[in-house]
Prior knowledge:
Layout (H helix, E strand, L loop, with lengths): L2 E2 L3 H4 L2 H6 L11 E6 L6 H9 L4 E8 L4 H9 L6 E6 L4 H5 L4 E4 L15 H18 L4 E4 L4 H15 L7 E3 L2 H15 L10 E3 L6 E3 L11 H12 L1 H8 L8 H18 L5 E8 L8 E9 L2 E6 L6 H28 L1
Parallel strand pairs: 1-12, 2-3, 2-5, 3-4, 5-6, 6-7
Antiparallel strand pairs: 8-9, 10-11, 11-12
Helix pairs in contact: 3-4, 3-11, 6-7, 7-12, 8-9
Amino acid sequence: MTAAGVVLTSVKSEPAARSSRGFHATVPKQKKVAVVGAAGGIGQPLSLLLKMNPRVTALNLYDLAPVTPGVAADVSHINFPAQVAGFAGEESLESALKDADIVVVPAGVPRKPGMTRDDLFAVNGSIVANIAKAAAKACPKACLLIISNPVNSTVPIVAEVLKKSGAYDPRKVFGVTTLDVVRANTFIAANQNMDPTKLNVPVVGGHAGITILPLLSQIQGASFTEEDKAALTQRIMFGGDEVVKAKAGGGSATLSMAYAGALFTDYVLRALGGEKGIVACSYVESDVVKNLSHFSSPIELGVNGVEKIHGLGKLDAFEQKKLEEAIPELEASIKKGVEFVAKNY
């Protein structure tokens, strides 16, 4: 994988831009997808959206909850071709993952009011580590799409577990940061009176608070006051908190995250099927920023997963300052994930 400095608006492919309106309509090469955490608040709508994706031949839905076969039965009635199977209980995890091309992982506990993503670490860290161990056995060549928070730590956890299992391919482990892009598109379109379906705002860094950095200076045709730039950046960084507070103890972002997860899964499906020029932001193993083993930036997808990692392009002074503020937190989150595996696995 290579890093290259580019102006991000220049790498955005037309197919990728069109995909922001929904799943791409070209006839697919079909694939097997497994959803781990399929009975949860993200997992159920995500499973529904993946059932509607014509690229999916087989859709395996897994969760610890005994209701999971019922979720699978419900989703299976939707009139799209994918064959759906449900799996419940710890003992069936490897069966659910068997020979999957893509494993999407929304499993874990959701945030509640007052909780940070870091508060989720102990529980969700163990969950994703066990999923990575099972994937190393059941589908060692699969692309793993990690939604479980805190993504800044859970993706390094998955990488370290796969290394210990001898099944690590850095091109195939992704932190799903697409929701940050979706929010940026929505909020900026409202501010600039633009069509949100035609925006593709680059959002780099990580997937928590100040590590989320939208590059507003690289949006063609947009112009922001300093006040708007600061307010929009803050809102994109903490959009998840906005949902948690609005749900008043009833959960976190589930529907928007399911949409974003399905959208990124579609990008990967298209690339695995041979489509060229698909560029999307994702938190992956990267050398874009010195001393950070993982970072989110625009990546080009291919038949083997990550084909090329693009650099940050030109940042303005505001963005450079925000990046410098994010780096120590990202570094600490990555270190925490690596140390978790070293201690427990």
